[in-house]
Amino acid sequence: MDSLIQRLKALSSAEDFLKFFGLSYDERVVHVNRLHILKRFYQYLHTTEGLSGLDEVEMFRRYRELLARAYQDFVESSAAQEKVFKVFQDVGGRQSVPVTSLRDSLRSRRAAA
């Protein structure tokens, strides 16, 4: 019999994971947030202590709880609010460039021309 980890490696989409763990889900939520859900699940897996010493049944139960929590984060919130990916961590999803930086860049381009 394959281990839980081997079976998880065969899964590729958020829907696959949710189905594997027997979690019901709203397709609209997953369609918009699939990568965010998986990234959050990954974050939860790596910040939760004590997972490595569990037997298969208990590991399945804990992984299922963490995936349900990751999914629920995006039912109750949005990708922009949850800030899972760096683009959302930057000031409201926008990066700023100081005017002095632009001015210096323009000077160096004029000097090179």
Secondary structure: elements and pairs:
Layout: H1 4-9, H2 14-20, H3 27-47, H4 56-76, H5 79-82, H6 86-89, H7 99-112
Structural notes for this entry:
This protein is an all-alpha fold and 113 residues long. It contains 7 helices and no strands. The protein has helices spanning 4-9, 14-20, 27-47, 56-76, 79-82, 86-89, 99-112. α3 (27-47) packs across α4 (56-76). The longest helix has 21 residues, at 27-47. The radius of gyration is 21 Å and the shape is elongated. The N and C termini lie far apart (68 Å). The model has no long low-confidence stretch (mean pLDDT 82).
Overview in brief:
With 113 residues, this protein is mainly alpha-helical. 68% of the residues lie in helices and 0% in strands. It has 7 helices and no strands.
**Share of helix, binned:** 55-70%
Instruction: Outline the low-pLDDT stretches.
Output: none
Overall morphology: elongated
Terminal-residue CA separation: 68 Å
Oligomer: single chain
The biggest beta sheet, please? none
- Number of DSSP helical runs: 7
- What sequence of helices (H) and strands (E) makes up the elements? HHHHHHH
Mean pLDDT across every amino acid position: 82
Q: Assess the beta-strand content as a share of residues.
A: under 5%
Our Rg estimate from Cα atoms comes to 21 Å
Per DSSP E runs of 2 or more residues, the count of β-strands stands at 0
* Helix and strand composition category: mainly alpha
Protein name: Nitrogenase-stabilizing/protective protein NifW
Family: Belongs to the NifW family.
InterPro entries: NifW (IPR004893)
Keywords: Nitrogen fixation
